Amino acid sequence: EDTFVIMPTGGGKSLCYQLPALIKEGTAIIISPLIALMKNQVDTLRNFGTQQGIAHFLNSSLSKAEIMQVRADLTDGTTKLLYVAPESLTKEENVEFLKGINIAFYAIDEAHCISEWGHDFRPEYRRLRPIIESIGQDVPVIALTATATPKVQQDILKNLNISNAKVYKSSFDRPNLYYEIRPKTKDVIKDIIKYIKSNSGKSGIVYCLSRKKVEELAETLQVNGIKALPYHAGLDAVTRRTNQDKFLMEEVDVIVATIAFGMGIDKPDVRFVIHHDMPKSLEGYYQETGRAGRDDGEGNC
Helix, strand or coil for residue 106? Predict the structure, then answer.
């Protein structure tokens, strides 16, 4: 049946399509916007089985020879899961090819990308339904997202034309996160330094609204002997990547960032998230604090 799954990050969304894909006849088509994420999932699935061809991805990073291999495995029915970037699905040659494949179902991951009301809108997502219809196999669609605003949900159901979908919503409560509000006085910087020092060696993120504030605060933390680096959209790509990697590799403990930081960051042991400035929205606050304690360990917000 058509299905709509709304679950927080780490709630097990991937399993909702991976397991049915392995059980059902044919190939499941999984549409996902993040190339790195696709590669990650395909590698994981391959580690479980003996056949490389059990899972493939189709995106702009593949060579001609690799594409030929993917098509061969699809044609002979070896492939159970095909991960596709929305841009690849819109290519005429791919649409034509998929018409000849036995498709089990479509899974649309990060489905909030369909909605202009969402936080991560991608126009090519709005073309998915017409493409599914032109491939022309009457199979179920499962849409998955971690964004729960009613407006975005309505948009997803309407745009994918799955208004009768069964909806599964799981709790967004993360019991290991501890939320605390402190008065913001003129000593706020001292308070932040004191807090970080009392948690020395632990990973944390400090969010500020402006780039200028990010730079100033990162510098102040450094002067006070804290291993911290800035992250915002105004830095060049190399610096951003380097700073992010140093945080992931634990060469620095703290990232001071605007909300540009964190999309696709999966560092499981972030122990605290501090908001130096008021967050822009409740959804934003939930997303940002949700980067803490992904390993189910302590997370202070």
Answer: strand
